[in-house]
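Dear Dr. H.,

I hope your travels went smoothly. While you were away I took the liberty of generating a structure for the chain from your last submission, since the lab meeting agenda had it listed for discussion. I wanted you to have the full record in hand beforehand rather than looking at slides cold. The sequence, exactly as received, is reproduced here:
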Amino acid sequence: MLRYYRIRDCLVPEKLIAKLETSSKGCLRLAMTDYLLFCCCTDRDLTVLQVYSLENMARVMTLKGHLKIIYDVSVSKDQKLLVTVGSDMMARLWQIP
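The corresponding predicted structure, in token form, is as follows:
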């Protein structure tokens, strides 16, 4: 039998604060640093890593390198490196600006 517990002081968002443009197939994976949001997006023939500023939710840059779907993305503890792995049989290491 499953039990559910109520968590005190849990804040639930009441309104949408941002809506980001991704791609026709959407955004498959997300990662964050203290100031950046990374979205792994796949379109027909292009897979990109969209980078957004958390301060104003503006797109900062688009990183290209994977040929197919990005399966996972992870940020290093010091928030200086980002690693992505994709179905193109590649793992890519990115330096975070």
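Two observations you may find useful: The chain is about 0% helix and 45% strand. The mean pLDDT is 83.

With kind regards,
E. W.
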